[in-house]
Design brief:
The complex is a heterodimer of chains A (about 675) and B (about 280). With about 675 residues, chain A is mainly α. Chain A contains 20 helices and two strands. In chain A, helix 4 runs antiparallel to helix 5, helix 7 runs parallel beside helix 9 and helix 9 packs antiparallel against helix 11. Chain B has about 280 residues and is of the alpha+beta class. Chain B contains five helices and twelve strands. In chain B, the strands form two sheets. A seven-stranded mixed sheet of chain B has the order 8-5-1-2-3-12-11. In chain B, strands 4-10-9-6-7 form a five-stranded mixed sheet. The longest helix of chain B is centred in the first third of the chain and has 34 residues. The chains are: A mainly alpha (about 675), B alpha+beta (about 280). At the A-B interface, helix 4, helix 8, helix 10, helix 11 and helix 12 of A face helix 1, helix 2, strand 7 and strand 9 of B.
Chain lengths: ~675, ~280
Amino acid sequence: MLGKLDWSAIPFDQPIPLVAGAVVLVAILGVLAWVVVRGHLPYLWSEWITSVDHKRIGVMYVLLASVMLLRGGSDAIMMRIQQAVAYQSQGYLPPEHYNQIFSAHGTIMIFFVAMPFVIGLMNLIVPLQLGVRDVAFPTLNSVGFWLTATGALLVNISLVVGEFARTGWLAFPPLSELSYSPGVGVDYYAWSLQISGVGTLVAGINLVTTVLKLRTKGMNYLRMPMFCWTTLASNLLIVAAFPILTATLAMLLLDRYLGFHFFTNEAGGNVMMFMNLIWAWGHPEVYILVLPAFGIFSEVVSTFSGKALFGYRSMVLATMAICVISFMVWLHHFFTMGAGPDVNAIFGIASMIIAVPTGVKIYNWLFTMYGGRIRFATPMLWAVGFMVTFIVGGLTGVLLAVPPADFMLHNSMFLVAHFHNVIIGGVLFGAFAGFEYWFPKAFGFRLDERWGKAAFWFTFLGFFITFMPLYVAGMLGMTRRMQHYDVAAWRPWMLVAAVGMAVLTIGVICQIVQIVVSIRNREALRDRTGDPWDGRSLEWATSSPPPVFNFAFHPDVRGEDAYWEMKAHAKQQLLEHEEPEYQDIEMPRNSPTGFVCAFFATIMGFALIWHIWWMVILGGLGAFATFVVFAWRDHDEYVIPADEVARIDRTNLEERRSLVSMAGAV
Amino acid sequence: MNLLDPQGPVAAANSTILIDSVFIMLVIVVPTIVAILGFAFWFRASNPKARYQPDFVYSGRVEMVVWAIPALTVILLGGVAWIGSHQLDPAAPVPGTGSPVRIQAVSLDWKWLFIYPDQRIATVNTLTVPAGAELNFQLTSSSVMNTFFIPQLGSMIYTMNGMVTKLNLRADHEGRLQGLSAHFSGDGFPDMMFDVNVISPLAFPDWVAGTAKTDAVLNEDSYRTLMQQGIEKSRPTYRLEDPRLFDLIATQHIPPGPGPELASEAGRSHSGGHDAR
């Protein structure tokens, strides 16, 4: 009846996951109870859960990423403590726990923190920057988000029901095959990624289509803000790379469920093929993450320097070069597998070539600052911090691309330090910069600067204190994923790294405090004009938060930095402008399709993991039926009458006029 | 285990390339970081001396330079990578004094088996080699993937079931080094560290003769016992009965090692039992 599931799946003998799970469960139930008691449920349902508004979906993506960041961060704290204490002893985590924790940490941080964070920001901002009213496929967008949430939910269920993978975040066979990992851990891993992978793929298709097909009047490709370009490049990579991940995991699942032999030791399976395929996805994946961050930094550096981006066309070229070359370098992840010197050298050099466009980007940001008038608001601090940090990560990355150096450093703590250097210093700093920068756009008030700056400094210093020692440990021969060790030389560095982790934690706490403080002071921090940073692109041309239709009129773009041009040339016009003739606007209806579909996908995923076949069929049919119902819909749009549009737009226009006239008076 | 304290020619060459590459990159990285901090500081909004040039958004010369600097660096490093990859191919022989020593390494769950087919002996978790001699390694795995790595001797290489990888090393000084597995392989993975005893070439035959006197015999049966999951603290040595044992393992005539047994139907597996803790 319940497949492999019975009471022994709950780890009653292991207090850590059980207590953690209980705390989370109580917290969720508490929030739910509060929502129901206060009568917020209808609002939540109709305005958020079923929303197909790209801004709301973007916010929910970022919220998901933030919650999962706390989960992944807790894993990180546990790992750092374990390696600090497990010298000549077993530490406090037995191998079966420790191995789950580092596997979950990697999986969560990549798939459920970094991915939803950047996809959320792209969702929120790209249609605004393009001057359009929504993404290409609004309901599909909602489906994509909720399927990602399903994946995150399944990973968290594994904390208390069964176990998570103990194989590392890429689940290399044969370790991940049924003979060596007979538990459900790998199944949790694979099914959550399969389901959320569908979500990511549809998000990618959606954003590619949006950028290619939905741009406002005059928004040529070479007038798009850099963030739109990096969004395009990143989502092209998603569309090209995620099917490889899906196919690879599907083969692993066939091995595990139906006795196939793609990657087994026996019957002609080939473990090297898994490594080959997973990195053919895995290397583009890091560029999927970092390209949008590059876009965010381009916007931030240019806005806060009070200058257009230096060498815009060069930046576009560099972005697209990275997009293409990133698909040709994956072999550098296994130089030590015994391929010949020709193969190793060619892929090593190809990997280094990526450093050229990346270096160009750094220099162009540098020259954007040159001759600027730089305001050090929190987003700009993250951007400068990123440039310094990322260069160090780039240096160690190119070093690892030299095969003879990699023969010494592959899989070492040096490698761990390197990819945290680029993922934290690049992607996470970018996500935080974007969060601070666009928060006023999403919610209508700015974030507290003092707490924001404190968060930056603690995170920045915490990063260096945590990860520089790991570089040293790698140079001392320490490899990754050690549950305990006996080498005295490694110990001090693990202790320093643990201290750094504490500093990083303070940074995260500052960020939480910042949000709480800002919500309390929201009236004082209110952004009335919609343009709190003196911005340059179209997202600042509408109110904060933008109305559901984003723009009452499609903006007419006449050059790069569209809104900056408007501000420069139209100050007078704006003042004298007569009231335009407002028209009705059609917007897509909210739809529970995404939520319901993900609900059934969760049931199906859980049932697949536990071999509860009747439930698999139930979940599959439910999800399919949801699609059919959606396909048979009669009305998918509603009309916002012209009067309503006018009422909403006038308020914002008034604020802007008063600002411009004040500026004119000075 | 310091990578910058090499004890053999391969490690020495690897670490030289490592250091050279870092210095080549530092030549551009340090000025760039200084420029970032310098520009950010000088062009701060509150500095009245800084000239605001909002129209400085393109310069063909600057673009030339910013594409050329990383490109030239990469050309230089690419040369280092190309030559280094060929000179330090793990399969390429490393000349040494005296006759080469053949060693067949097998990664087991979770220990290392070192077979000396010419000497007809085998050891577990201890590798004894003569200083100065060429060491020819053939490597395979009894079950999951591992990576054979002696940091101070250089180049690591994967071990995989049903396949043989090759590695050539040389140890130049007598002494005790440490090796490890550099690819996660399950619960007992951290206990896959092994000792490397580098002894004088004159003492090596004596060590071989002494080891060959042991009563323990490594044959297919005792290998099957050894490959059960578990960690090994006692470092046994064996007399090798059949010098073709490695080939039997690598060609899967001896099937891959078993995994853990499922403790319950509920999918929470326990592996290695208590000895893994």
